[in-house]
Amino acid sequence: MSTEKTTTPAEDHVVENPEAAAAAVTAVDPRLLVREQGLKGYVNEFKRKMKAGDLGSLPVVVGLLIIWAIFTSLNSNFLTAGNFSDMSIAMVGTGMIAVGIVFVLLLGEIDLSVGSVSGVAGATFAVLSVTHGMNEVLALVLAILTGTAAGAIHGFVFARIGVPAFAVTLAGLLFWQGFMLQILGENGTINLDSDGLVVKLTSYYFSDVAAAYGLALVATVGYFLTSFFDNRRREAAGVPSRPVSEIVVRTAFLAVVAFAVAIVFNQYKGLPLAVVIFLAVLVITDFVLRRTSYGRKVYALGGSVEASRRAGINVELVRISVFAIAGTFAAIGGLFVASKIASANQGAGTGEFLMNVIAAAVIGGTSLFGGRGRTWDALLGVMVIISITYGLALEGIASPVQYMITGGVLLATVIIDAVTRKTQKTAGRA
Amino acid sequence: MVHVSATPVLALRGVSKRFGAVQALTDVELEVHAGEVVALVGDNGAGKSTLVKTIAGVHPIDEGVIEWEGKPVQISKPHDAQNLGIATVYQDLALCDNIDVVGNLFLGREIRRRGVLDEVEMERRSRELLDTLSIRIPSVRIPIASLSGGQRQVVAIARSMLGEPKLVILDEPTAALGVEQTAQVLDLVERLRERGHAVILISHNMADVKAVADKVAVLRLGRNNGVFEVKSTSQEEIISAITGATDNAVTRRAARTNGEIKK
Q: On chain B, which terminus has fewer CB atoms closer than 10 Å, C or N?
């Protein structure tokens, strides 16, 4: 995609090493990545990316389609509107926490405490609003801030004192689980008001069919317009831009997916509120990571801490903020989990839940080695995990097998991640 | 010959630096003019890195004067050096592998438009910069990880040019590079000179020094051990100055020859 000119450098100066200098000023570098015109160009570029290990989301999407195909063939109920809608809501809790994990993984770190922190948020909300009768909105905000504070503490100990994130958050895992049990008290389970704000998070549907179609339309038009105007600016500035035909194809693809999902939701109870919130979070976090200088700093730290420091980035501040973000999303996810079961109980955020969250982020394509990934990965990964859970549950397969299968999928994913990384290194034109 | 202005961009006058009991630099003199490449050579432990770090503001000097464009200045932190217009490219490159070329060039000084990264403007300026330096890389939108060592080095040097520095310090820019890549970097050094930048080049490689430098300043055990005009000095003379094998008469003779050339 490069249009570099072959300028011959000034030849009036004396070069003592003519052979080497001549080699350096040979015509166009044969390795320039110039995409050929038309369809052939795309095919070639795709092949090149495959070889270079630049697979992007492709393995996950293919894997997801295979999983759906298998479960649909086993049980025709799997891809019904009702089950699909249910799965979409069930994935929001795990998915929200996975969004926070993506931030931490981008730094090349890990946060093991998110499960416990999510449990604390659910318990905090339940205790404040149900036991103490506090205003629900206030209790909700306080519950989320609890998560932010917990994350900021982990970040502080990690960034300022220099304790490995693994150790800090492992301590956090134990501490916050104990904290949750402590505030839940003797009973252990607090039921939430079934008409309350938090329960509505997962039980409310926009039943008007216009809502789902409207959202699909807004997404499609919004995508087209931002791509189109971005391209116009690129053309005006004289930098390479996409052909309009490519934008149209991409928009059409998005439209097909968006409207298909909207039709499925409308066949059941309508557009779930939880899904709308999750999509909004994904759009916003993706924007922050890829379009703001804060996001650039997060990626830079994942690439090279020393380079970031020399570029004047406040390494400590970024690290603390990323852990605070992970804590915040853990709390938000915890509220969605509590909302789904309409109660805060002692089991929240324990057991395999943490592993599912981290697996979701990694399966989606976020690298464990830092610096590579997007928050949309959380969506793809959690879709894989929830599909497996629901599919196996429909088949009546017990949880031991579920664990083994999820473990296998996770292993396959990290293998892809490690191999991709290696291929990318060797494909670097050295 | 390259035009050399009267006032040096940077001049060190009798600079000394101690670390505890170690006298790292003693009465070092150095002058760099605009449009001039000065190679700084010396054996390991001769004080090259210390000298560069005093100029870059990492280690403040103990004695002596640093003159910037003829005026004495204090350089006590890296920031002071950057504000004066001194850019340093260290040996271990300060680039992020996972970020593309544009992102690396503008890392830490992103251009923003209404609070959002202005990728279009950054890409345009990157291309402009790389074009003016005749740097060819596969694409400005591929991650640094897929560039060769030489390409990374030229990107790192290009990155230092963004602040429009008057003096560029290159610490062993060709140390780990192959023949062709070394030539690319040396080409770039020559282009910096053509554009009127003063360049201090630290190198162990005499071929590189002979190829691009105008003057060679030799350090030995923290002291000046001669400044040579590259054109009129043989490689053996420089090497003997580095190793200290110089007979005093030869140094004097070299100094005399230099004097004649200047006349």
A: C
Total Cβ atoms within 10 A of residue B117: 21
Cα B45 to Cα A420, B40, B52, B204, B220, distances in angstroms: 42, 13, 13, 12, 8
DSSP-derived secondary structure for A258-281: HHHHHHHHHHTT-EEHHHHHHHHH
Using only the alpha carbons of chain A, give its radius of gyration: 24
Residue B69 gets the label, from left (phi > 0), alpha (psi -120 to 50) or beta, of left
B223-229 and B167-171: which strand pairing?
Answer: unpaired
Closest partner residue to B96 (CB to CB) among A33, A239, A304 is A304
| pLDDT above 90 (res B260) | no
Share of chain A above pLDDT 90, in %: 54
User: CA-CA distance, B30 to A277, in Å (whole number)?
Assistant: 64
Which candidate in B100, B146, B147, B208 is best for mutational testing of the A interface (most A CBs within 10 A)? B146
B221: left (phi over 0), alpha (psi -120 to 50) or beta: left
ipTM of the complex: 0.80
Residues 6 or more apart whose Cβ sits within 8 Å of residue A367: A105, A373, A417, A420, A421
Write out the H or E segment, with its range, that includes residue B219. strand B215-220
What domains are there in chain A, each with its CATH number?
77-207+269-416 (1.10.3470)
Structure tokens at A310: 């020399």
Pairing of strands B63-68, B71-73: antiparallel
Global pTM value: 0.83
User: For the residues of A176-230, what is the DSSP string, one character each?
Assistant: HHHHHHHHHTTT-EEEPPTTSHHHHHHH-EE-SHHHHHHHHHHHHHHHHHHHHHH
Structure tokens at B28: 């070092």
Tens digit of each residue's pLDDT (9 = 90 or more) over B16-38: 998 888 888 888 889 999 999 99
Nearest to A16 among B149, B194, B211 (CB): B211
Taking a C-beta distance cutoff of 8 angstroms, is the pair B47, B126 a contact? no
Distances (CA, A) of A293 to A108, A128, A422, B118: 19, 37, 28, 10
Give dist(CA B174, CA B181) in Å, integer: 8
A contacts of B188 (beta carbons < 8 Å)? none
